[in-house]
Design brief:
The chain is α/β, with parallel strands linked by helices. It has three domains: 60 residues, no CATH class; 308 residues, TIM Barrel (Alpha-Beta Barrel), CATH 3.20.20.70; 72 residues, no CATH class. 47% of the residues lie in helices and 10% in strands. It is built from 20 helices and eleven strands. An eight-stranded parallel barrel has the order 1-2-5-6-7-8-9-10, surrounded by six helices. Strands 3-4 form a two-stranded antiparallel ribbon. Helix 11 links the parallel strand 7 and strand 8. Helix 15 crosses helix 19. The longest helix has 20 residues. Bound molecules: S-adenosylmethionine and iron/sulfur cluster. Iron/sulfur cluster binds next to loops.
Length: 473
């Protein structure tokens, strides 16, 4: 895909800062919106264009009921047109919560003496992975605090362990990372271990606010963090995830900055982020935060819809920080990946802890459904739960670009692979009631494939029923 470069105040130079807060505020304060302009911008998204800052500001400045309805409708239509009804499932695995930083919002911050510090031993790590595999998980994100113990070598070793450990028919086929930013050599090391996406959230793109929430520790350096994913790209790790922690500063500013970060990566490396995350601040042990910048559910819904329209080709992640009901709604507006069966206390996939103890976790989660319950609800909504990892493993990197830009890609690859991975799940892990619903959804999705593809998928499903695994195209 070719990107059209845009000209902003700070030119895009690899590894150099690119956020100009005055420029972003200038757009937000001086870009009038109207229902007609909103419609024009939505048309640009529907034609598969990533929006400019000015166009994004038109959507963010839309306050009338009609415009907001239009934005949500547009996001829904875009999501259906580009991504269909698939939702990719994954699980977070907290490996260690030691941390040298003191982020005001996080239960793991160094000054929080109430937090019980722990790093999984090799044996505990293996047991957690086995427990995850036994519930049917295929994709993990490993999460770490920032600590000298969690070196690139250590992170790389946990990635290798996750791929190596296999339980019954289970296996982990994709391992992503959310950890402190590394230097170029460090990113190279974790890439060699086979890491999928490396996520680093800027938390807030507003420099002064960033300084107040990150008073000390390595994370206090705004520019070093902002250039993290440039360093990943320089190391050849081109699959990166960006994000902002919603609630630290004005959410509209953060949306603009996420779009700016996207076009910085496009301009410098000709590849945008693989995923965007927009976690909302949740209660945490000894939380020291005001709620001045809290985004309401209504604003958060708008945020999701506007981001979907602004960056049509990028995966969007919504985690169990949000309650099930809201997640079910937001899925329609463009979320493409959710976690299921999430447990965030260290060691809790084995111990079955119920995510209740804030002194043993980073923040409170609000969706405590098991993986199977989440899958059932997705099926009920007519969604197609997917554990697909085919593109990444076939070297078709940048799969979102392909889904997005190669005509028919979803019908040829994504839907068949989603069906095949769901079929595996139904065979190996689902209770009878879920399996019954699941096979109905599979049949419905098969009907939408052409005859040749349908026959091929049916033949592969037969092989899955006879015990073959990991079939994809
Ligand atoms: N320690 C690494 C770092 O800071 O980059 C890994 C990130 S941390 C384990 C994962 C993310 O959780 C953070 O980047 C932040 O956005 C989010 N987070 C921290 N505290 C939170 C809270 N109270 N509520 C919701 N999300 C939070
Ligand atoms: Fe440490 Fe990350 Fe939490 Fe900050 S957000 S205190 S760096 S774990």
């Amino acid at each position: 895909m070719q990107f059209t470069p845009e000209v902003y105040h700070i030119p895009d130079i690899p590894m150099q800062p690119f956020i100009d807060a005055d420029e972003i505020w200038d757009y937000l304060n001086n870009t009038p919106s109207s229902p007609e302009k909103v419609r024009q911008v939505i048309d640009r998204s529907m034609a598969k264009n990533r929006l400019t800052l000015e166009e994004t500001a038109i959507l963010l400045n839309a306050t009338g009921e009609e415009s907001i309805r239009e934005i949500k409708r547009g996001a829904k239509a875009l999501k259906t047109k580009i991504y269909g009804n698939r939702i990719v499932l994954f699980a977070p695995l907290y490996v260690g919560n030691k941390c040298v930083n003191d982020c005001a919002y996080c239960g793991f911050r160094a000054s929080n003496r109430d937090q019980v510090r722990k790093t999984l031993s090799q044996n505990e790590l293996e047991k957690e992975i086995e427990a995850l595999e036994e519930s049917g998980q295929k994709r993990l994100i490993l999460v770490f605090g920032e600590h000298p113990q969690y070196s690139p070598e250590f992170i790389a070793e946990t990635v290798r362990t996750a791929y190596r450990v296999k339980k019954g028919r289970g296996e982990i086929r994709r391992v992503n990372i959310n950890a402190a930013p590394l230097d170029i050599e460090g990113f190279r090391l974790v890439k060699e271990a086979g890491v999928g996406t490396y996520q680093v959230f800027q938390e807030t793109y507003h420099r002064e606010s960033y300084a107040t929430y990150h008073p000390r520790g390595k994370k206090a350096d705004y520019d070093h963090r902002l250039a993290s994913l440039d360093r990943a790209q320089e190391a050849g790790l081109d699959d990166v995830g960006i994000g902002a922690l919603i609630g630290l500063y004005d959410w509209r500013f953060e949306v603009m900055a996420l779009v700016r970060h996207t076009n910085h990566l496009e301009a410098c490396y000709n590849v945008g982020p693989h995923t965007i995350s927009f976690p909302r601040i949740k209660d945490a042990s000894m939380l020291r935060m005001g709620n001045h910048y809290f985004a309401s559910d209504e604003e958060f819904t708008r945020l999701v819809a506007i981001l979907r329209l602004a960056v049509p080709y990028t995966g969007m992640i919504l985690t169990a920080r949000e309650p099930a009901e809201l997640r079910n709604e937001l899925i329609q507006y463009g979320v493409s990946q959710i976690d299921g069966g999430t447990k965030i206390e260290l060691g809790s996939y084995v111990s079955q802890q119920k995510n209740l103890n804030l002194n043993r976790s980073q923040f409170r989660i609000n969706d405590n459904r098991s993986l199977n319950e989440a899958i059932e609800e997705l099926l009920q909504q007519g969604m197609l739960p997917s554990f697909c990892t085919a593109c990444y493993r076939l070297g078709r990197t940048g799969e979102h670009f392909m889904e997005f830009s190669v005509p028919g890609f979803i019908k040829r690859f994504c839907t068949p692979n989603a069906i095949l991975t769901l079929a595996e799940y139904l065979e190996d892990y689902a209770p009878a009631k879920t399996a019954e619903k699941g096979w109905k959804v599979i049949e419905k999705n098969m009907d939408e494939l052409n005859e040749k593809m349908r026959n091929e998928v049916r033949e592969k499903i037969d092989r899955i029923k006879q015990g073959e695994r990991d079939l994809y195209r």
